[in-house]
């Protein structure tokens, strides 16, 4: 004879499992319910997270492409420009030529120069030197300005550090000036 459909419920093994499960009580049923809920909700939580991860990855790739197209870092650019600047500096022989040219230009513009002060200063980097030239001058205001402008245009490594001018009287055309230049040179290797 064929066993009845409900016989599995009364089978001794089934009764043993039922007994064990009934001993665990409501914590078992709550755990099973939470597990089933997590399995059911998994795709609802994981899919948006995957989409967000894919969006972040696309943003990261875009940032990498933009960084590759961007010019080099400003610090690298500044360092390269400093190296290029030092490479274009004249050697120490050019300082004498610059001083002679300053005096010749002053004469051409009617600027009278008195004896000046000349100092060679080693810069901290050790890659270049600065030849500081301080010249007392006497001329008209426009003559002084033209002399300084032409000297700066002629020597790209010459800088006008400071200049001051005074007049003895308000209506006097001639001014007494003190002009301080710096002429940059490549340090001897």
Task: Characterise this structure.
The protein is α+β, with helices and mostly antiparallel strands. It is built from six helices and five strands; from the N terminus they run H-H-H-H-H-E-E-E-H-E-E. Strands 1, 2, 3, 4 and 5 form a five-stranded antiparallel sheet that branches. Helix 5 packs antiparallel against helix 6. It is rod-shaped, with a radius of gyration of 44 Å. The termini are far apart. The model has no long low-confidence stretch (mean pLDDT 84).
Q: Indicate the mean pLDDT.
A: 84
SSE pattern: HHHHHEEEHEE
Radius of gyration: 44 Å
**Helical residue percent?**
55-70%
User: What's the total count of β strands?
Assistant: 5
**Total helical segments:** 6
- Given helix and strand content, the structural type is alpha+beta
Main sheet makeup = 5 strands, antiparallel
- β-strand percent reads 15-25%
- How far from one another are the termini? 112 Å
What labels would you give this structure?
189 residues; alpha+beta; 5-stranded antiparallel sheet; 5 strands; 23% strand; rod-shaped
Outline the secondary-structure elements.
Elements: H1 7-10, H2 12-24, H3 26-69, H4 74-88, H5 93-108, E1 112-113, E2 117-122, E3 128-140, H6 141-154, E4 158-166, E5 174-186
Antiparallel strand pairs: 1-3, 2-3, 3-5, 4-5
């Amino acid at each position: 004879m064929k066993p009845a459909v409900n016989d599995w419920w009364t089978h001794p093994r089934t009764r043993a499992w039922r007994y064990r499960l009934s001993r665990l009580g409501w914590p078992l049923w709550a755990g099973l319910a939470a597990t089933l809920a997590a399995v059911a909700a998994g795709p609802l939580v994981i899919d948006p997270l995957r989409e967000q991860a894919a969006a972040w990855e696309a943003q990261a790739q875009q940032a990498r492409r933009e960084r590759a197209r961007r010019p080099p870092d400003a610090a690298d650019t500044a360092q390269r420009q400093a190296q290029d600047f030092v490479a274009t500096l004249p050697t120490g022989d050019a300082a004498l030529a610059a001083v002679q040219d300053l005096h010749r230009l002053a004469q051409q513009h009617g600027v009278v120069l008195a004896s000046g002060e000349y100092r060679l200063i080693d810069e901290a980097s050790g890659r270049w030197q600065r030849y500081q030239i301080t010249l007392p001058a006497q001329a008209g205001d426009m003559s002084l300005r033209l002399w300084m402008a032409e000297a700066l245009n002629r020597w790209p490594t010459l800088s006008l550090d400071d200049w001051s001018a005074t007049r003895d009287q308000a209506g006097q055309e001639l001014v007494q000036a003190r002009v301080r230049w710096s002429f940059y040179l490549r340090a001897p290797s």
